[in-house]
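Exercise: predict the fold of this chain.
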Amino acid sequence: MGPLAGFRVIEFAGLGPAPFVAMLLADMGAEVLRIERIGFADPMGQTHDVLNRGRKRLSVDLKNPAAVPALLKLLKSADALLEGFRPGVMERLGLGPEPCLAANGKLVFGRMTGWGQFGPLAQRAGHDINYVSLSGALHAIGTADQPVAPLNMVGDFGGGAMLLAFGMVCGMLEASRSGKGQVVDAAMTDGAALLMTMIYSFKANGQWSDKRADNLIDGGLPIYDCYPCADGKWLALGPLEPQFHRLMLDKMGITDPEFANPWDRDCWPALRRRLSQVVLSKTRDAWMAIFADLDACVSPVLDMNEAPLHPHNQARGTFVTVDGVVQPAPAPRFSRTPPEIGAPPAPPGRDDTGVLLSWGFTQTDIDLLRTQGAVQ
């Protein structure tokens, strides 16, 4: 029922951000078929790989000569293809953009890499921390003493997968009008740089220092930071506007004159010491009992066990449980075509015959491919 219902996408199994793109498209209603090599196993050893939810699987021997014509036949019924290999891998398999677009001129060919399809580093190995490091983002995140890797959300999932998902939907929308497909080249390092647009704007206007923890929203400003509570849990403060700032001070019982102008950098060390002292005087739950119903921009720092239980997250259904696995629900929300989570990942091989039949293959075609060893 999602907004992408009716679209068909072929996903070539990979790691991390590419499966996340496929999950996003499937959550939004697209029919996504995941192509896995025979014997494919999750290198992380996950029993419940939430990233693979909502789509069927087809096991194929990608190096078998009979596999290429079969996959090109599949692509004739697809709107888009998604792959996350190093540049050149799909070409060596005989499934690069040229033969795929020849088979289906409206195909959107989505490519997810760290460095992009071209450039001096295109063939270089790397991980999220490497891609983010070239964008300026990693240098800006962390303590005053050192950069800190921001999980893998800035490069892999934010700058990579989210941008490719957006790019593929843009490509499919354009193809529906022009009748022509194209290649979408999504590089995590490009996307991480794009996510830094506002910070680069601050820098251009002289409002951003290259020192970490020296700016308004990087932990430099004392009233925009996290502080430990009496029970070892943490409180997040962010009252940037005067009215929120005054309310926070009032409820914390802070009357120190230095807080009259929190933007005065000379006062920052004193403000930080005082806030640390005050927040440490109560438990996190005690603070939240004080601030729960107030517009003071004060919130608890929840761990992954606590977040699904928070009343706001429960009211919005931000997290769901599928087959006993707690996981984030599809987002964003649509008023008329709501997205939904499809079935959890099926065992390899279970869907093969039904999938091939639904994508235009006959039983004779399937039997031949099995005899040739092209499919499981």
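Check your answer against the key: The first helix runs from residue 17 to 27.
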